[in-house]
Fold this sequence. Notes:
Number of strands: 4
Shape: globular
Oligomer: single chain
Mean pLDDT: 95
Strand order of the largest sheet: 1-4-3-2
Order of helices and strands: HEHHEEE
Helix content: 25-40%
Protein name: DUF3768 domain-containing protein
Low-confidence stretches: none
Number of helices: 3
Structural class: alpha+beta
Pfam family, one: DUF3768
Organism: Loktanella salsilacus
Amino acid sequence: MTEVTTLSAEDQAEIDRTAKIAEQNDLFRITWGADPSVQGQIVVTQGVSALSVIAQMRIMGAVKGFATFTEDNDPYGDHTFGAFEVTDEGKAILLFWKIDLYDTDYTFGSDTPEDTDATRRVLTIMQRSEY
Length: 131
C-alpha cells in the first residue's frame, strides 16, 4: 500500500515561494539582468575582469545557459548558485556564480525575496580561487 503524505498549507506555501524565487532568479540570470521585472546588478570579481574578452564572453554564455541544478549545488531549490568552467587558450578556468537577494537599497537581505518590487538581485561571478 502506498502511503500518501499531505503537506500542510504552510509547507506548500514555502514550496511555492521557493519555486517563485527560483523562477525569478532564472529570469534575471538568463536575461543577464535585462528584464525590467526582475531588477538587480551583475558584478564580476577582479580575477574574472582580468580574463580575456573571449573568456568573459564564454563565462556570460555559461552563466546564462546554466541548468545543472542538483541537490548538491542547489539544496534550497532557489537557483542561487552555480559552479562551472570555461576554457581560455586551452586552459580550464573554474568559476562560481551566485545570486544574493537584497532590499531595494542593497543594504540588507530582502525580507520578502519573492516580491520583485521589494527585492534587488546581485549576481556575482568569480573564479573559484577567489571564493
